[in-house]
Amino acid sequence: MSEKLCHINIYCDESRHTSNGEDPYMVIGAIACPREQKAEIYHAINLLRKKHDTWKEFGWKTLSPSRKDFYWELLELFRIRKDLSFRCLVVDRNILDHEQYSEGDAELGFYKLYYQMLVHWLQPECAYHLYLDWQQNREQGRFKDLGHVLGKKLSGRAKIECLEPVGSKEQPLVQLCDLFIGAVGYAWNDRAGSETKVEFCNALAAGVGLSSLKVGTYKNAPKFNVFHFTGR
Question: With a threshold of 0.90, does the pTM exceed it?
Fold first, then answer.
């Protein structure tokens, strides 16, 4: 592996993996940016927050008509910045067989899906700093185990510098990830209860060149990547 690695930050979140029992599809996603561009991107987001006087945590749940302009400008910020990219894994929870494939442990099965979302996205000659939205796990060490397994798989090709949980309130790119995975989940689960959210789903799809968010993209789609996982 080259000594001179590109350093990439990845901010991860998940949607509908424990709630919304009526929704079959869950989504695990991430937003990536070059580590050296993080401060500039955060500054750009803060300028939008100042412009729209929106300082509270943002995300899919807080998308509403009164904050529409702010969210559409976030979408445009993502669209025009070549240093921002998104990937998510979409899976029908009804097909998951944790008994057979995860020793009956749904939490283990969940982190196996996280692995699937990440491992095919990480590129050679890069060092990755992975930040997952914090959540309470039954088993301690889940985050550490995920980092270890990823590092072992990528050994000699890419490097996992760190993998750690973070609070979303302090991480606007985790919040942006929440917004996008919320939109993808809304589309895949055929939700239509909010006109503003339907409009956002359509605007996001159009902005990244898709006919709809309810599609799987080709494997190496660089900007907005939707991986429809059909394994067990």
Answer: yes
The sheet that has 6-15: what strands, in order across it? Answer: 159-166, 126-133, 6-15, 25-34, 85-92, 224-228
- Reported as a single tens digit per residue, the pLDDT across 86-117 is 999 999 998 886 555 545 566 887 889 999 99
Tens digit of each residue's pLDDT (9 = 90 or more) over 111-166: 899 999 999 999 999 999 999 987 756 555 788 899 999 999 999 899 999 999 99
Q: Cα separation of 146 and 9, whole Å? A: 16
CA 84 to chain centre: 12
Give CATH superfamily name and number for 6-228: Ribonuclease H-like superfamily/Ribonuclease H (3.30.420.10)
Q: Write the DSSP symbol of residue 186.
A: H
User: Is residue 203 classed exposed, middle or buried when 0-12, 13-18 and 19+ CB atoms within 10 A define those classes?
Assistant: middle
CA-CA-CA-CA dihedral for 69, 74, 77, 83, to nearest 10: 180
CA–CA dist 15, 184 (Å, integer): 9
Cα–Cα dist 149/198, whole Å: 38
